[in-house]
Design brief:
There is one protein chain. Helices cover 15% and strands 31% of the residues. The chain is an alpha+beta fold and 731 residues long. The chain folds into two domains: 349 residues, Prolyl oligopeptidase, N-terminal domain (Methylamine Dehydrogenase, Chain H); 298 residues, Alpha/Beta hydrolase fold, catalytic domain (Rossmann fold, 3-Layer(aba) Sandwich). The strands form eight sheets. The protein has a nine-stranded mixed β-sheet with strand order 28-29-31-30-32-33-34-35-36, with helices on both faces. Strands 1-2-3-4 form a four-stranded antiparallel β-sheet, with no helix packed on it. It is globular, with a radius of gyration of 25 Å.
């Protein structure tokens, strides 16, 4: 399956983080702090940690071993832009860049099984229409393997977007196997924008062979022999139906003929907690997370023929998460369960000595990030909540881990704050797993509470089908350094805590999901953590929507709000989803509301902040990418226009060369600079002057910039938006 999830996603398939370049441990932590908390001191006595340190590119990250174990690859900047570097496994000082991206940076890459190529995905201007590229390690030659510029409609003309740009196809990697080192499987929607056809792609020549023409399936299960074993459709109730595939080889030059038969179904209540993961070595067993007949998603093995299910591991409080699987034997060796912190259950005793040794090497949680095909060499990352991740190369035979690099040396030794996991009760009795990071120096007796109430930022995660987890969070550290407590709450609908918790949020946007956030604020005030008059709400994607809800549905609670790419009108949000989300739209209609019926549209209107603009009483900052394919730029512009018409002040920041979040470091830096000035003005915390943090950015501030210190002056450093794929200039 090609549907995965990340921390700040709007739907399970996609991700958002305006600090993407530095959120190295998001969703993977379970780390012990590197050292005890620093001695208490007044925040005003400590230097400001520069935004560049917190949100700039990492020095190096994503260390990955080649399949033959002879080389490593990682991401590191070239002229300030993240690119792929390669080095001999025993000589990282000899690392050289093999890509030369000069715009958005490379974030998704992996080794080809032939050991001679790196493959990476890149979009244009944040449009998320991914092209697949091959780069040769020998000569750094880059080849676009999916060079399709637009999708042709039935009339023979390119399909156009509302922005006036052509709709570009998006490639998905559907299968990689050590059994076919010079090939991969890809999905491509260049024929039908809603569905991805399956192709077998030869890396050396770029030749694509159509395997399966697809006009009905949202995703596929493919084994290591590149055989399509099953397809998945979402049904009109928001559940998923799986069908077994029987393949008949097609004639020369023709795709295979597939016959489908019902396999199993997943009801809507289990659809987000029950998912296939992969096959065993001979393809007779499919591994799954499965919540059917229980609350939390257990790790199970399902016999593909008899359909007998065997439970491998389960946890009463948390869904099965990350899975360790042998690179060629496909045996499940361990599974992670993340409740307050990430904990591994080891199923294969043969790797226990390795993990026991690795736990002695460095502080923090051990994460095995890649393995050679022969399983002799691993790369390992150690993550923690108050320091940068550290990466090692581990020789299993020698039982020796060699230090590779720290993700960001400039963060070493800084007064970073511990993140405290805790559980807050909702008004109707749900356990809300949350994380609290206090301002430095505010808790002199180290009892987990400030000595007196402090300003608080409620930092709401996106998704909403995602979660916050324990680990280094640059935003939390930034806020704590500026004098604010940062509270991150896994409200109902968050993932990882069982189906009952997720389903408690169905059709509760701006309802009980928001009640959970208000309950968390009230808890923080009651506990003496937050100054009731100085609480801000802040978030991206769904978190941006929650911000707009906070300022319209509960206008007296928050002193100000920061909305990053958040929808303002649920009807227009659902009517403008990307075409390739069409096959999974029932997930929205069953969990958010149905924009296809009069009753459904009326309900969505009642949950749309745009319709309650007149209730806004407190300052609002909105950030938007013009090319956002998920939350269209019109979601921001329509609420900005509505506020202007009612003479309600708003600060609006837009980036013509960004999408669902701000990927370019210059753009990230400029937005954090504006946000910092905004929070300082309305919450009273510390602020680093904007300085040169607009330099090289495409930032535009159509309204409200004159009200924030330094913004108008800094706009002189802004560059024109000439990045390929950049949108039109917003009004």
């Amino acid at each position: 399956m090609s549907i995965s999830r990340f921390r700040r996603s709007f739907v399970p398939a996609l991700s958002l983080s305006i600090a993407a370049g530095l959120c190295l441990s998001a969703g993977a932590s379970g780390a012990d702090s590197a050292q005890p908390a620093k001695p208490a001191a007044a925040a005003g006595e400590l230097p400001l940690i520069p935004r560049a340190t917190l949100f700039g590119n990492p020095d190096r990250t994503r260390l990955t071993i080649s399949p033959d174990g002879k080389r490593v690859a990682f991401l590191a900047p070239v002229a300030g832009v993240l690119n792929v570097w390669v080095a001999p496994v025993d000589d990282l000082k000899a690392a050289k860049p093999i890509t030369s991206d000069s715009a958005r940076g490379i974030r998704q890459f992996f080794w080809a099984q032939n050991n001679t190529d790196i493959l990476y995905l890149q979009d244009k201007g944040g449009d998320e229409n991914w092209s697949l590229f091959r780069v040769s390690i020998a000569d750094s030659k880059v080849t676009d393997l999916t060079p399709f510029e637009n999708i042709i409609g039935p009339d023979g003309k390119p399909i156009m977007l509302p922005t006036g740009q052509p709709l570009r196809p998006t490639a998905r990697v559907e299968g990689v196997s050590h059994r076919f080192p010079n090939e991969i499987l890809i999905g491509l929607n260049n024929r039908n924008p809603q569905y991805h056809d399956l192709y077998r792609l030869e890396l050396s020549s770029g030749k694509m062979t159509l395997m399966l023409q697809n006009d009905e399936y949202a995703g596929f299960l493919v084994d290591d022999d590149f055989t399509v074993r099953a397809g998945m459709k979402m049904n009109d109730k928001g559940g998923a139906d799986y069908f077994k595939a029987t393949i008949a080889k097609g004639a020369a030059g023709k795709p295979d003929q597939v016959t489908w038969a019902p396999f199993f179904s997943i009801e809507q209540e289990d659809a987000l907690t029950t998912n296939p993961i992969g096959f065993n070595k001979d393809g007779t067993i499919v591994y799954m997370t499965d919540s059917r007949g229980r609350n939390t998603g257990a790790l199970v093995a399902k016999d593909f023929t008899t359909e007998k299910v065997t439970v491998l591991a389960e946890n009463a409080k948390a869904d099965a998460g990350g899975v360790l699987m042998h690179p060629t034997e496909n045996t499940v060796q361990g599974v992670a369960f993340d409740y307050l912190r990430n904990e591994w259950t080891i199923l294969d005793k043969s790797i226990e000595p390795d993990l026991a040794y690795l736990r002695t090497i460095a502080p923090g949680d051990v994460n095995i990030t890649s393995r050679s095909v022969d399983d002799k060499v691993w790369t390992v990352a150690y993550t923690m909540d108050n320091g940068p991740a550290k990466s090692y190369v581990y020789d299993r035979a020698a039982k020796k881990a060699t230090f590779a690099f720290s993700a960001k040396q400039s963060m070493e030794g800084l007064p970073l704050q511990p993140m405290k996991p805790l559980v807050i009760k909702s008004r109707d009795g749900l356990d809300l797993v949350s994380y609290l990071t206090l301002p430095i120096g505010s808790d002199k007796n180290n009892d987990g509470k400030p000595d007196s109430p402090v300003p608080l930022v409620l930092n709401v995660h996106g998704g909403p089908w995602a979660r916050d987890s324990f680990g280094l969070d640059p935003e939390a550290q930034w806020l704590a350094n500026r004098g604010y407590a940062c509270l991150q709450v896994n409200f109902r609908s968050s993932t990882g805590f069982g189906k009952n918790f997720i389903n408690a949020g169905n059709r509760e946007w701006a309802g009980k999901m928001h009640d959970d956030l208000i309950d968390a604020v009230n808890w923080a005030v009651k506990e003496g953590i937050a100054d009731k008059s100085k609480v801000a709400i802040y978030g991206g994607s769904y978190g941006g929507y929650a911000t707009l809800v906070g300022l319209t549905f509960t206008p007296d609670v928050f002193a100000c709000g920061v909305d990053i790419v958040g929808p303002s009108n649920l009807n227009t949000l659902l009517s403008t989803i990307p075409p390739y989300w069409g096959p999974i739209k029932s997930m929205f209609t069953s969990r958010v509301g149905d924009d296809a019926t009069p009753e459904g549209r009326k309900f969505l209107e009642s949950r749309s902040p745009l319709n309650f603009v007149e209730k806004i009483q407190r300052p609002l900052l909105i950030g938007q990418g013009y090319n956002d394919p998920r939350v269209k730029f019109t979601e921001a512009e329509q609420i900005v226009d509505a506020m202007k018409k009612k003479n309600i002040p708003v600060t609006y920041v837009v980036y013509p060369d960004e999408g669902h979040g701000f990927a370019r470091p210059e753009n990230r830096m400029s937005f954090y600079a504006v946000t910092e000035a905004f929070l300082a003005k309305h919450l009273g915390g510390r602020a680093q002057p904007i300085g040169e943090d607009f330099k090289g950015s495409s930032i535009q501030v159509p309204t409200g910039g004159e009200d924030l210190a330094g913004v108008s002056a800094a706009l002189g450093d802004v560059r024109p938006a000439t990045t390929p794929g950049s949108g039109k200039k917003p009004k």
